[in-house]
Design brief:
Strand order of the largest sheet: 4-3-2-5-1-6-7-8-9-10-11
Low-confidence stretches: none
CATH superfamily of the largest domain: Mur-like, catalytic domain
Number of helices: 9
Helix content: 25-40%
CATH class of the largest domain: Alpha Beta
CATH topology of the largest domain: UDP-N-acetylmuramoyl-L-alanine:D-glutamate ligase
Shape: elongated
Strand content: 25-35%
Structural class: alpha/beta
Number of domains: 2
Number of strands: 11
Mean pLDDT: 90
Largest sheet: 11 strands, mixed
Length: about 240
């Protein structure tokens, strides 16, 4: 008979009454985290004044095409692929932590709202992609001593600050407060805008950077002067 114990005692192995101690804990850790693995999953974080939930849901839907289990948190719940497991406002760090700890989740998409950041931080220490939709005039002002659009931008910028060196910040080239976040990103920046002649995109592409824009009713992903990929643009609903 074999006992299956959710919280096995290791003391008898680490400090036996008779015989040599055995590093059972080390063996368990090696099994959970094989050589070369760190236990992390890819994380995309989305913040901004408007459009966070829409972008989070769209990105999670696209990532499901990889065949992996996508954990997504947003203002209308927590999702594992299409299965909704919570229906509250889940755009804060507690929900992000719950999603990260789920052993089934292979990639995560976190809507990251201002309120959660101010209350308890991010719920993650690094992300692979940080998307800032916009700041604009700052719709959500006057709460928690965030009184100006510049104050709000500093809060939203938290997800850009923790992009991994190999990661990317996806920034709105048409919003100066979002563009100003780029120097704080440890990774690279990718700008997006409707107008291919946006000065930020033009300068970024001239320096070899990546950008997404619309040209002749086509969405274009470009790296420097090269067009990488394009798809038909159907406009806003």
């Amino acid at each position: 008979m074999v006992e299956v114990n959710a919280a096995p005692g290791l003391r008898m192995h680490l400090a036996p009454s008779v015989g040599e101690p055995q590093d059972v804990g080390g063996a368990i850790i090696d099994m959970i985290f094989p050589p070369g693995e760190n236990g992390r999953i890819p994380i995309a974080a989305i913040s901004g004044t408007n459009g966070k939930t829409t972008v989070s849901r769209f990105l999670a839907h696209v990532l499901q095409g990889t065949g992996k289990v996508i954990g997504m948190t947003c203002t209308d719940g927590i999702y594992l692929n299409t299965r909704r497991i919570d229906s509250d406002d889940c755009s804060g760090p507690i929900s992000a932590g719950m999603c990260s700890r789920n052993p089934n989740v292979e990639m995560a998409v976190f809507e990251t709202a201002r309120g959660g950041i101010l209350r308890a931080g991010l719920g993650f220490d690094e992300c692979d992609v940080a998307i800032i939709t916009n700041i604009g005039d700052g719709d959500h002002l006057g709460l928690s001593d965030i009184n100006t659009a510049e104050d709000l931008a500093r809060v939203k910028r938290c997800i850009v600050d923790v992009v991994r060196p190999s990661g990317t910040a996806v920034l709105n080239a048409a919003d100066p407060l979002v563009v100003a976040m780029a120097p704080f990103c440890p990774g690279s920046a990718l700008y997006f805008a409707l107008d291919p002649a946006n000065p930020v995109i033009v300068a970024h592409r001239a320096a070899g950077g990546r950008a997404v824009f619309v040209r002749n009713n086509t969405i274009v992903l470009a790296a420097g002067p090269r067009k990488i990929r394009s798809s038909r643009w159907t406009g806003f609903p």
